[in-house]
């Protein structure tokens, strides 16, 4: 059975200032998602599931249904703020989605096989999808997942802060803990971010981080559901709190209910977190076409 790729495309893109998931960066109007799907297909994935909002459903389907016809199976699920555990108390004024952990959880009924997870607006590289595919096909432990790990230096934007899951990894290559760290900014000597205690966190740039490129088995849904219930109980009335995948799974890693392998890639991330990122992304795509990594037209 071929693995599935779950594409998280429901984010609002507030820092970017628009619907960055559908912004065109390739010479024939390709988006970053197009290149990720192209890499996933040639790596051996058999199905794409998009997590989207209802207000962009028509745009997304118009873009991908015809392009991907006869290439790979496609499905869609909706991340809605009303999709919460029965009896939960949440603010009626809430408009912001509940976060990446919830985005994965809403796809539980649509995925019956091992699957990968990506952000729609991040470029991960062909090597990363091959590593992810091979893990999902070959690792048979139902409670063993993976993160495709990147060096922090390879994941920073020149135009503002980014959020990254900073990983603590043992000599055995297994994740010991992961901390979702927000507002990491590139500095001449590495990077820094505000810490939870008000102190500045400093990074060399050699740290291993998660770019939300995960490999999961079916068992993950029960852990994510439990974590989301706890989150809603504590933060359901908050208008902005989000539950991230690393936060959901960290306690299960620490309690050894699950193991997560860190599988390193040499790829360099780029994305359109900010509008100022786009020219670099466009030029990077052109360079890879000249190098023969991608054809000039991928559809």
Chart the SSEs and their pairings:
Elements: E1 4-8, H1 32-43, E2 47-52, H2 57-68, E3 73-78, H3 100-105, E4 115-119, E5 122-123, H4 126-138, E6 144-151, E7 162-169, E8 175-187, E9 190-194, E10 200-203, E11 208-216, H5 220-235, H6 245-254, E12 259-264, E13 270-271, H7 278-290
Parallel strand pairs: 1-2, 1-4, 2-3, 6-12
Antiparallel strand pairs: 4-11, 5-13, 6-11, 7-8, 7-11, 8-9, 9-10
Describe the structure using short key phrases.
299 residues, alpha/beta, Spore Coat Polysaccharide Biosynthesis Protein SpsA, Chain A, 11-stranded mixed beta sheet, two-stranded antiparallel ribbon, 13 strands
- The outline comes out as globular
Strand content: 25-35%
CATH topology: Spore Coat Polysaccharide Biosynthesis Protein SpsA, Chain A
Instruction: Give the class from helix and strand content and strand pairing.
Output: alpha/beta
Mean pLDDT: 92
Instruction: Give the name of the CATH superfamily.
Output: Spore Coat Polysaccharide Biosynthesis Protein SpsA, Chain A
Oligomer: single chain
The CATH architecture would be Alpha-Beta Complex
Number of strands: 13
Q: So how many helices?
A: 7
Approximately how much helix is present in the residues? 25-40%
Q: How far is the N terminus from the C terminus?
A: 25 Å
In the CATH scheme, the class would be: Alpha Beta
Q: How many structural domains does the protein architecture include?
A: 1
Low-confidence stretches: 12-17
Task: Describe the main β-sheet briefly.
Answer: 11 strands, mixed
Overall radius of gyration: 18 Å
Topology as H/E string? Answer: EHEHEHEEHEEEEEEHHEEH
């Amino acid at each position: 059975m071929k693995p599935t790729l779950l594409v998280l495309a429901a984010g609002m893109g507030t820092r970017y200032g628009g619907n960055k998931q559908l912004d065109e960066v390739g010479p024939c109007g390709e988006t970053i998602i197009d290149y990720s799907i192209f890499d996933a297909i040639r790596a051996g994935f058999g199905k794409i599931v998009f997590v989207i909002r209802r207000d962009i459903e028509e745009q997304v389907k118009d873009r991908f249904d015809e392009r991907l016809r006869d290439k790979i199976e496609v499905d869609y699920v909706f991340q809605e703020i009303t999709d919460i555990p029965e009896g939960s108390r949440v603010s009626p004024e809430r408009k912001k989605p509940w976060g990446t952990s919830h985005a994965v959880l809403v796809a539980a009924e649509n995925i019956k096989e091992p699957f990968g997870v990506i952000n729609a607006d991040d470029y991960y590289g062909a090597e990363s999808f091959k590593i992810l595919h091979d893990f999902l096909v070959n690792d048979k432990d139902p409670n063993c997942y993976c993160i495709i790990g990147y060096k922090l230096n390879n994941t920073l934007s020149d135009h503002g802060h980014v959020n990254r899951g900073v990983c603590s990894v043992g000599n055995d290559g297994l994740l010991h803990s992961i901390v979702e760290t927000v507002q990491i900014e590139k500095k001449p000597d590495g990077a820094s971010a505000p810490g939870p205690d008000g102190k500045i966190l400093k990074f060399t740039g050699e740290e291993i981080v998660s770019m939300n490129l995960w490999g999961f088995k079916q068992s993950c849904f029960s852990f994510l559901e439990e974590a989301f219930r706890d989150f809603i109980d504590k933060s359901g009335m908050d208008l902005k709190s989000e539950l991230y995948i690393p936060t959901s799974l960290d306690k299960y890693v620490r309690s050894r209910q699950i193991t997560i392998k860190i599988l390193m890639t040499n790829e360099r991330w780029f994305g359109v977190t900010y509008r100022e990122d786009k020219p670099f992304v466009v030029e990077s795509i052109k360079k890879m076409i000249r190098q023969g990594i991608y054809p000039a037209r991928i559809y």
